[in-house]
Specification:
homodimer, 112 residues
Chain lengths: 112, 112
């Protein structure tokens, strides 16, 4: 089991901002996950990978793919208090889910 | 309501690694939080701040303080598959809780 969190590299987010957006995505997709998958993922140490996306359109394409694979997922928009315009899409979390299915969606992306 | 996630700056973690550890801490402390506080925090947009700690001893001091304030908290140790030695303490999440109480614990730290 793993969860993949995909981050836009084109926004120039600072490290703390980026980490907060990743955590936001992770928690939101987790909340969208069934009890059995949650438990299995946590039992294995809640494996997470953080990956790079080029921009907004890629985030939406990946979210569509996650939807078609039946994986829990969450697209995060920034509230815009700092650094970014309100509503800017920053991150996508996919899973937790079976590694092989998560890889169908995010397997081609580079590690952040 | 907010959650503060405190990161060691002395480990030289890469951005993706750091973000994954922050997400891990955030979710672990969230799971340790009562239903009412969870709901209130999410209703307000799950505010998170990512802060800097100098090293391991500061993480443990802050965790002790969170314990005394009755705040949910989680100290994260890395599994050590990459970059760090197994068991290395990387992050601490405090809250979600009332902002004024979280600030009693982490209010003196700098934003990451």
């Amino acid at each position: 089991m793993k969860q993949a969190i995909v981050v836009r590299t084109d926004l120039g987010m600072g490290t703390g901002k980026l980490a907060a957006q990743v955590a936001h995505a992770s928690l939101s997709a987790y909340e969208d996950t069934g009890r059995k998958a949650r438990k299995a993922w946590k039992g294995e140490g809640q494996k997470k990978v953080v990956l790079k996306a080029a921009g907004e359109s890629q985030i939406f394409e990946l979210a569509d793919r996650a939807e078609r694979e039946g994986l829990p997922h969450a697209v995060i928009r920034d509230a815009g208090h700092t650094q970014l315009d309100p509503g800017t899409v920053t991150t996508l979390a996919v899973g937790p889910g079976e590694e092989s299915i998560v890889d169908k969606v995010t397997g081609d992306l580079s590690l952040y």
